[in-house]
Automatic annotation (TrEMBL):
EC number: 3.2.2.27
Taxonomy of the source species: Bacteria, Pseudomonadati, Bacteroidota, Flavobacteriia, Flavobacteriales
Domain Uracil-DNA glycosylase-like: 50-211
Organism whose genome encodes this protein: Croceitalea marina
GO molecular function: uracil DNA N-glycosylase activity
UniProt KW Iron keyword: no
Function: Excises uracil residues from the DNA which can arise as a result of misincorporation of dUMP residues by DNA polymerase or due to deamination of cytosine.
The entry's keywords: Cytoplasm, DNA damage, DNA repair, Glycosidase, Hydrolase
Catalysed reactions, as listed in the record: Hydrolyzes single-stranded DNA or mismatched double-stranded DNA and polynucleotides, releasing free uracil
Family: Belongs to the uracil-DNA glycosylase (UDG) superfamily. UNG family.
Location in the cell: Cytoplasm
Catalytic residues, chain numbering: D65 (proton acceptor)
InterPro entries per record: UDG_fam1, Ura-DNA_Glyclase_AS, Uracil-DNA_glycosylase-like, Uracil-DNA_glycosylase-like_sf
Name this protein carries in UniProt: Uracil-DNA glycosylase
């Protein structure tokens, strides 16, 4: 596994790569990619960091692990490659954006455009074996991504964390709520959305309202 991370993140995260747990994780991931089909492709494992520089991060969205179907995952949570049909959770995200902000439902589900505006799209687990959801969980990725969240909380001010669903909400304790904003709701998956726990959360307009109050540029969702 290539563990070189974007230069802006290096001073904050490089030490993690030297720790025993990360060496074990890297060995596991390398073996998985050699012996099985895994996603995203190796060069995209750290894409969330490549597209969103550390000091430009304004919003953090936390997912669980990458899509495990062919050609879907591109290293950013909830995002898919251009031209790929939108998975149900992503479709519900776009529907809520339309309800909330009036912005038209987009053709592309590639969320690099959000990342480049300062939205860190962070999966807790950065890799997965094809067709086996959760197959790379509890191997060390969560330890690493928890450090990412804690480091952002410590080093930055006025970040907005969007925590969707039970798994993401468990990350609340990693964030200094005296310095940062947390918005929570149900997950955008059909199971949660159909129970009335997703639609109407207005997280996208609320995020922009908070950014405006802090004199930061709003996100073009």
């Amino acid at each position: 596994m290539n563990v070189s991370i974007a230069p802006s993140w290096k001073p904050f995260l490089q030490a993690e790569f030297e720790k025993p747990y990360f060496h074990e994780l890297a060995t596991f991931v390398k073996s998985e990619y050699q012996n099985y089909t895994c996603y995203p492709k190796g060069s995209e494992i750290f894409s969330a960091f490549d597209h969103c520089p550390f000091h430009e991060t304004k919003v953090v969205i936390i997912g669980q692990d990458p899509y495990h179907g062919p050609n879907q995952a591109n290293g950013l949570c909830f995002s898919v490659r251009d031209g790929v049909p939108h998975p149900p959770s992503l479709s519900n995200i776009f529907k809520e954006i339309k309800f909330d902000t009036g912005k038209e439902y987009p053709k592309s589900g590639n969320l690099e455009r959000w990342a480049e505006q300062g939205v860190l799209l962070l999966n807790a687990t950065l890799t997965v074996r094809a067709h086996q959801a959760g197959s790379h969980q509890k191997k060390g990725w969560e330890k690493f991504t928890d450090v990412v969240i804690k480091t952002l909380s410590k080093e930055q001010e006025g970040l907005i964390f969007l925590l969707w669903g039970g798994f993401a909400k468990k990350k609340t304790g990693l964030v200094d709520t005296a310095k940062h904003h947390i918005l929570t709701s149900g997950h955008p998956s059909p199971l949660s959305a159909n129970r009335g726990l997703w639609f109407g959360n207005q997280h996208f307009s609320k995020t922009n309202g908070l950014l405006q109050k802090m004199d930061k540029v709003k996100i073009d969702w």
